[in-house]
User: What shape does this take?
Amino acid sequence: MSVELFGVLLGVFFTLAVYTFLYRENPYSRIAEYVFIGAATGYGIAYDLDWLKNQWVGTWSKTMEDSILFVLALLLAVLWYFRFSKRYFFLYRIPLAITVGTYIGLALRSVVFAQVIEQVRSTAALKVVGIDPWTAFNNLVTMIIVVCTLAYFTFTVRQEAAFWKPVNKFARYAMMIGFGSAYGYTVLTRMSLFIGRVQFLLGIPPNPPEAKMFFPWVALVLLGTLLGYDYYKKTKK
Amino acid sequence: MATAPRIWEKLETIDARIIYLILWIVILWPFIYPIGLPVSIGSYSLAYAKAIDDLPAGSIVVVSFDFSLGGLGELYPIAIATLHHLFTKPVKIVIIAIWSDGAIVADMVLKDLKPDQPPYNRKYGEDWIFLGYAPGGETAMAALGKDFWSTLPTDYYYKKHVSTYPIMQNLRSANDVTLLVSLETGTPGADEWVRQWYVPYKVPMIVGCIGVMAPTVAPYLAGGQVKGMLPGLRAAAEYELIIGRKGLGVASADALSTSHMVFVIFVILGNISYFMRRRSK
Assistant: This one.
C-alpha cells in the first residue's frame, strides 16, 4: 500500500472514528480526538518555528541591533512557559501583560469607527421614501428594531412608564428572531461540515476516490466491534 | 384516546441515535441518487461576485485563508470558486494565511486549481504568489497593513525573499491593495480585518465564511465595510452558479436541502409533541 493510499485509509478511519461518538463514547472516538489535538498542536508549533526562521533569515539577521532585538523577543516568548512553574509563575505575567496590552491597543484605535460609528451612520442613512416599497418596509422595520432594542438595554432610566411595555416586548421578539436566525445558520454550518466529510467518504472529487473503497469496510469494522462488544457485555451479565 | 399522550411522550424522548441515523441516510442518499433541487441566488452572493467582476485590470487582491481544516466542509468550495474567479481576471493575487492551518488549506486549493496550467496560465511570482502563514492574529493583520515585506519576508513555496518577485514590487502596504478577500471561520477574521485594514486604509473587503458567522458579518455589509458575503455551503452553490463553474457547492445543495427538511420536520414534531403533552396535562 502506497503512502498516499495509507493516508486516505487513515482519513476514513479517523472520520468514522469521530462519528462513532454518536453511538456512545468509545476508544475509537477518544483516539481520533487525541490524535487530532496532537496533530493540530504539532502543525501549529512547526509553522510558528518556520515563520521564526523566515523572520530571522529575511529581516532580523541583517544588523547587530536587529539581531539583539530578535533574541530579546525570543527570551520574552520563553517566559510564557513559566505558566507551569509555581515558583516563577510571576514571570509568565510579563508576556501576558504585553500581549493583552498590544491587542487592546490595536483594537481600541479603530473599534469605535469599525463597530459603532459606521453602523450608526448606515442605520441613520436608511431611506423609507423614494425607493421600492419592499426595501422601504425593510428599512423601516430595521430602524424600529434598532431603536427598540437599544431602548431595552437602557438601564439608566427606570422603565416604569406604560409605553415601555410594548417597546420592550417588541425588542424581545426582535432579539428572539435574531437568535433564531443565528441558530439556523449554526445548523447550516454543522450540516455542511458533515456533508463535507460525507463527500470525502464517498470519494467525490477533489477528494481521493479510494476513500469510497475503504468507507464500507472501515465502517463495518468500527460498528461491528462496538456493537459486538456491547452484545458480549450484555450476554455476559 | 389514552394512548395519545404516550405517543407524544415517546416522540420527545426519542433516542438521539435514531435521529443521527436518519440524518446519515438523508445526507448520503442525494449523493448516490441526485435529486436536482433548485438553488435560488441571493443578493449577498451577487454582491460578492460583482466585487470581483468590477476589479480593474492590474489590481492587487489579497486572499487570506483564515480558517483551519475543520472549516473545509463549507469553505473549500468557496475558496476554489473564488480563486477560480480571480485567476480568470487580469488581476494580481497575493495569498496569505492568518491561521496556521490556513496555509495547508491554501496549498490544497492551489494544488487542486493549478493556476500555472490551462485554462489559467498564470505565472507564479508575476501574476500570483503564496506568502504562507503570518502568526499573531490581529497583530499580524496590522503588521501586514503597514509592511508586507517585513511581516512575510519569504514566500511559501520557494522560501525566496519577496523582493525577488515582480508581483511584490508594487505591494508594500495595505494602501496598495484593491480588494481583500477573507475566507474565515471566526476570530481572527472579519472583525479584525475591518479594524486593521478598513478603518485605517479603507481597503474594500469581501468575506466567505461559515454559515454561523453570517450574523457577525452582516452589520459590516450594512455599514458598507464589507462589499459582499458568502455565508456557508448554500452560498457557495449560489456563487458557483453565478460564475458558471459547478463544483462541490452545487453537488452538496441536495444534501443540504434534505438534511434541513428533516431538521425542520423534527422541530415541528418536537413542538407538536410539547403542546400536545401540555394540553393533555
